[in-house]
Every structure is written in structure tokens, then in C-alpha cells.
Amino acid sequence: MxxxxxxxxxxxxxxxGIREDFKACLLEHDCVMKEGKLPSxxxxxxxxxxxxxxxxxxxxxxxxxxxxxxxRKGY
Length: 75
Fold this sequence. Notes:
The structure is a single chain. The chain is mainly α. It contains 5 helices and no strands. It has helices at residues 16-28, 30-33, 39-44, 49-63, 67-70. The longest helix is centred in the C-terminal third of the chain and has 15 residues, at 49-63. It starts with 15 loop residues before the first helix and ends in a 5-residue tail after the last helix.
């Protein structure tokens, strides 16, 4: 479930909800918060893998030529 804030302007880009959840997962993970590593380093270690995969699938669906006829997947 995406997090939405009242005082923040709405992101209308594709996959915005997953992008926000993925970003929050990385920035709030113990790997970044306690160990002081960069989010990119935590990604290489495999943290937030499910959200990373979902974000990739959402972005890939935008490039899929079949989506012209079927429409983008509902993310």
C-alpha cells in the first residue's frame, strides 16, 4: 500500500506508488540507518528485493509493445 502525505504534491508519473514504497523501504532499512551504507550498496546485498522486482515489472510493462492493446498493468 503506497504512503501518501497531505502536504506533498502528487506524483503523476507511472509506477509512482511502487517507486515511493521502494524508496522508503531502502531509506528506512537498518542497512542504511544503522550501518550507514549507501542505498545502492544495500540493494546489492538484496534488501527490499520484492519491491525492486515489482518496480522493475511496472517499468517493463510500460515498454511492452502488447500494452498498446491491453493497457498498462494496474500498479
